[in-house]
Structures
1.
Amino acid sequence: MDTGRTRADRMEYSRDRLPIGTLLVVRTGRSRMSDVDEPADAGGDAMAEAFTYNGGRVDPGESANIRYGISETYLGDPVRIPVTVVNGAHPGATVFLSAAAHGDELNGIEVVREVAHDWDHSELHGTLVCLPVMNVPGFLAQERYLPIYDRDLNRSFPGREGSTSARRMAHQIFTNFIEPCDLGLDFHTSTRGRTNMLHVRANMDNPEVARLAYAFSSNVIIAGEGPSGTLRREATVADVPTITIEMGEAHRFQRALIDRALTGVASVLAEFGFHRDSSVHWPGWRTVIDDDNEKTWLRADAGGIVDMKRGRGALVEEGDVICSITNPFKEEEDIVTVEAPFTGLIVGVLENPVVYPGNPLCHLVGLSPDTYTALYRERRGNGSHDRM
Ligand SMILES: [Zn+2]
């Protein structure tokens, strides 16, 4: 596909010019295509519409794999993000699924790819906009940030023309593939060296975001609007209700977490009518962590080597030992023991077992007594362990 730099490549991210040379449209050959009238005339909600972006369109009943230029390298070559648009033959909402805003966070890439390419969307109502790798320079370097001055793409949305390189890239992504959507799912993992249990982060004060968060069917939802410049916050501000899904650690494909996230996506697609014959999934138990819950990142008060006793998803009671920090000689008198300051659930935890004073050890959230008891009984009943 990649034919090198062409004039069309250079033009494809220039906002006011139309032709692009890199669009690959894959006709799906769905029989219902003949039932769809010219989508440009589709005014009512009874007719599927084309998905359009700068320089291209994907008509109802079609899928397209697109490489869309959002910047240029030092060599002047285009930086292009992969995008798959699946436009169902039936009318419906438009959802984006995005991953790797942080370039080394890989689990979400596989979630987005499987939804785009392995699932049967022959009865799809609406449109899927799949962005498996947004931070291409970070992905190539296997780094969290854009290597250019270590900018955080996920603090650069909605972006701006004429601004920094990160904001220009964010602007291209946001205007072409986020703003045209009705809702969004943005996949992340923990920062390198730590791991998260699968959970959703969502502004639960916004009813549409809350509906989306519940539909994803995670056990844990952490409420909050998110930092300024994050995709989920800025998309939500732009009337595209969006949640973040946190799952596992960087630099890995973690199959069990990917499968659970796929269950969440299927549940969302059912809730919002994309797949009419599937149903919304109930996770078995659920807790929403808001300002009323205790939550903290426990930090090391000593430098050293960490012996972590509990994994992600562990239930701990106040006073339980979470880890100990030792020096190279394992001298008894220098061992620092870290205990849970309150009863709760370990949502995130250190994986790389070395710390300076001040480094995070684990993300602990408090549970209501009812939730704690229910979860404790469930775990005792099925003999499950810490890792979730
Ligand atoms: Zn991230």
Note: Residues 129 and 177 are 7 Å apart (CA to CA).
2.
Amino acid sequence: MKTYYKLIQGDCNKIMPTLDCNSIDLLIADPPYHIEQSNKLTKQNGKIMSTSSAWGHWTNDSFAEYDLMIKQFLIYASKTLKDGGSGYLWLDYSKVGYYWGYLEQIGLTPRNSLIWVKTQPMPHIRKTNYRSSYEQCIWFTKGEPRAFNFLKQKEMKNVFHANNTKRTTEHPTEKPLELFKWHIEVSSNRGDLVLDPFLGSGTTMKAAQELGRSCIGIELNPEYIDIIKKRCYGTTFLDRQVEYDFPEVIQYAN
Ligand SMILES: C[S@@+](CC[C@H](N)C(=O)[O-])C[C@H]1O[C@@H](n2cnc3c(N)ncnc32)[C@H](O)[C@@H]1O
């Protein structure tokens, strides 16, 4: 079997229209949540800091601009997905209902909402609200799912427990590898092509590599491109021929 990994630096809304229509088996998208604030505190690596310092300043735009960006990328997602392809869209919980409705409007089929339970939730510094202990995504498909690999009953609850403190990179919002491996195992088969338009630290690509799926990843921030290269470039696999298409390929030692 042959797999390939392509990394593209830039705005996904400029790059996705250049991808082939009906070519993607599975989309994993974890865009900025539009919740970072300079006056909202969190704790990272033992330090108390504003959520905008901890999670990045990607979304200082108005909600209208954010909304346009998400809706545009969802339109491109619906074109690039194959019939029967699946998508996992991670969002702030306050926006799940809103984008669920939008997915239906553009002809995609939301099928469930999945919860990642953080096993080590951050303390609430000001003690004025509940501690944030979960994140949520929408699983949707384009028509009837072409791959749905039902794992063991206990692995198919719509709730997934994973540690939120074990990070392998400097990226501020790295998702647990096992969480994205779960999406890939359930909603694709070996050799399939996975797209992540907001690749961040490269979690989706790493998970795709470990499970024998090809992957195209798009990331806007050049600093994160370096993190992704270190994490994903050049790995070899005994069971397959691997091809890398990375920008300005640098030979990082594994
Ligand atoms: C929530 S993070 C993704 C984290 C990722 N799932 C991981 O596990 O590392 C969102 C990422 O989207 C990137 N981003 C924001 N706007 C983008 C755009 N228009 N096109 C591509 N990437 C974008 C940010 O730089 C950030 O790294």
Note: Residues 213 and 252 are 22 Å apart (CA to CA).
